[in-house]
Design a protein that fits this description.
The complex is a heterodimer of chains A (152) and B (152). With 152 residues, chain A is mostly helical. In chain A, 64% of the residues lie in helices and 0% in strands. The longest helix of chain A has 32 residues, at 117-148. Classes of the chains: A mainly alpha (152), B alpha+beta (152). The interface between A and B is medium-sized, with 27 and 29 residues.
Chain lengths: 152, 152
């Protein structure tokens, strides 16, 4: 059973710069002894941040609860939480990661019609991946800024 | 259905599914369905083999089939695969994707159908494949994060 109070608390923690590891540590503290703690973490991330399936195992959750860290966790999941923030935080407007339509890019417009489906899919994927990388860098910069802020 | 699949009713509902190998609960599946833009999107984690090669009595395809049976009522429009390196125990799809893209000239969309999840999805009729993002860009054989969607 998820605690709505903890969901509220987790959201507040993220707003003030908590990393995914800090959020997981808080969940682990609240649910100490839960034999399915990793599944519980996933359930909270779904409910609080609309992250469908954070890919972290039980041993990793236990490591974090003991003060350890998981390489790449912040880099991968802080941007995902930031990306869904307009869905769970009324104070934030939607927008942000708009992926441009390749057909609207002047340099591609003339040749777009001559590409086959696989080439078009590849260009779309390149643009989506680059856009996501850029948004991730921006989200991590905001997180760092909050952590360095005297009020953060 | 494999009689060794034991559903956890306390964590299973219309949009969630948890089941384990009753002979060894290290082997399990966890899944959820969310609605995005009018589509029901399925995300899941299945553990059918440990990193040392140990297998349980339930095959990955059997867990997958049981999960799809469970969600037949609400209907799945998209099977989403998020293959990444966060948990080294759960990289079977990413490893297979990198083996294929690093050793052949097949497209990434075709490569996605040749990994375990891709094989399960296509067998269930989800043959329309979109590799949404692949990071780092163009790193065939060395990807660290793939987001792929399978539709009918």
């Amino acid at each position: 059973m998820l605690s709505s109070q903890l969901v509220f608390e987790l959201r507040a923690m993220f707003r003030t710069g908590a990393t995914p590891a800090a959020l997981i540590a808080r969940i682990a503290e609240r649910h100490a002894g839960d034999p399915h703690l990793d599944a519980t973490v996933r359930a909270y991330f779904r409910d609080a941040f609309h992250i469908p399936m954070i890919r972290i195992g039980l041993e990793q959750v236990q490591d974090i609860a003991a003060g350890g860290d998981v390489p790449g966790l912040t880099e991968r999941y802080a941007p995902q939480i930031a990306r869904t923030r307009h869905e769970w935080d009324d104070t934030v407007a939607a927008g942000g990661e708009a992926v441009p339509d390749p057909e609207s890019i002047p340099e591609l417009a003339a040749s777009w019609g001559r590409m086959d489906d696989e080439a078009r899919a590849f260009v779309r994927r390149l643009i989506a991946t680059a856009s996501r990388s850029q948004a991730s860098a921006a989200a991590l910069a905001v997180l760092l800024d909050r952590q360095l802020s005297p009020t953060g | 259905m494999n009689p060794n699949i034991e559903v956890d009713p306390s964590r299973t509902g219309p949009r969630t599914y948890f089941a384990a190998d009753r002979t060894d609960p290290r082997f399990q599946i966890e899944a959820c369905v969310r609605t995005v833009g009018g589509e029901n999107v399925l995300s899941f984690i299945v553990v059918a083999q440990l990193r040392d090669g140990t297998r349980g009595r339930v095959r990955g395809s059997e867990f997958f089939a049981a999960m799809m049976d469970h969600f037949a009522g609400i209907g799945v429009d998209v099977i989403e695969g998020q293959w990444e390196t966060t948990n080294p125990d759960w990289t079977a799809n990413l490893d297979a994707f990198n083996r294929v893209t690093g050793s052949s000239n097949v497209t990434e969309a075709v490569a996605a159908t040749l990994v375990p999840t891709g094989r399960y999805a296509t067998r269930h009729g989800f043959t329309n494949v979109a590799v949404v993002t692949a990071s780092p860009v163009g790193a065939r054989g060395r990807y660290t994060e793939i987001l792929v969607q399978f539709r009918r």
